[in-house]
Amino acid sequence: MTNVSFDHHSPEYARNWRRINADLRDRCPVAHTDAHDGYWVVSRYADVAEVVRDDATFSSYFELPDGSHHATTIPVSPMRQVPIEMDPPEFFDYRKLLTSRFSPAEAKKWEPFVREATAYCIDSIIESGRGDLILDVASPVPAIFTMALLGLPLDGWQVFSEVTHSLIHSAPETPEYVTAMGNLLTILGQVNEVIARRRVEPTDDLISHLVQAQINGRTLADDRLMEIITLVIFGGVDTTGSLIGNALEWLYRNPEQRELLRTDSDLLPKAIEEFLRYFSPVAGLARTATRSCAISDQKVDAGERVFLSWSSANFDPEAFDDPDEVILDRFPNKHQAFGLGIHRCLGSHFARSEARIVIEEVLRRMPDYVVGDAQPYPSIGVVNGFISLPVTFRPGSPAGSTLRLSLVDEPG
Ligand code: HEM
Question: Across residues 307-322, what is the average pLDDT?
Fold first, then answer.
């Protein structure tokens, strides 16, 4: 039996994703669903790895004869993102442009800035003894960092943080979504202005790097730059915020582990890998079969959509001992939370250092936080996180962050 009732956007999946994934892995590891015009769901670790590594057979951007396209989300997003929605050989030109700006050394260079941004955000709530770990900290820090990385004016960080968060969790047509879409257009307008300025007078930011970059001897058109920049924004902000939010919510419910991490921050890097595995903030992404083929003996036709469930692969008992347990020092931990193969997450070093710094600072400055009415995303779709995470804690003193959020061009 290959036909199942499955929709990764459904509220039921958001509530029970670990159970539903386990059921699929056991019963029907390559299953077909009729949701969203039909797609295959691949849920075992080895099968996901095999598909994702065969980028010739499983495309990240597939044009249909009628000119419409299939990319990496189901349903397809109206905005193309690059290089995630591109195949070799073109893909490699773009990936190469970006790698130097996303290296471990770059992540290290940005750490003092991320720490300042974290201090700034915690300072905004520390004296009151109450706040929201998502809205005041976990969403703003990646937002401020991403703006600084790109070279956008930081004084718009609140709207930027709000837009990147709201567009991920609110359903289309809701007033919240419509407002966020309107604000996104304003932000993209600002991005366009910065692109134009950097073309004339480049600085050291990512947009300057991109406007000067060349492929086959030609600089990139504005539309292409936008496709890259929107990926950095939507790939980097709510994903990282969701990792941090999930980890902090879990640590509240597991006070002994919270105390352990607070007193032994050397454990944090391994713990973050485990949070990446256990929460899989990007639950899954898609490919399109370019030819008739088989995934683990299941025939798949050319043009069919294939959903790679990283969140299921990350709980496969064939790949992890005691997958349902959070083991903070789990090693080795070859999770697929950042994907695998040629499209493996470019921002992983940034995500890791942001998560490490924010979690460390929250545990240091608000060690006794109590979570109130946590609101998980009603639908996962792509990102699995919390809408809000209200907290109370013993008030403290501001750290006196020196970050001036009206500054544009300086990484700290
Ligand atoms: C916890 C945080 C994050 C998670 C879970 C995550 C997850 C992923 C995954 C699963 C992919 C693979 C996509 C595929 O194979 O189709 C990916 C790609 C990508 N991510 Fe991340 N990501 C995170 C943070 C970031 C950050 C902070 C940035 C940038 C600042 C970023 C930028 C990108 C880019 C540019 C790609 C496309 C790479 C390519 O196509 O070659 N991500 N991410």
Answer: 98
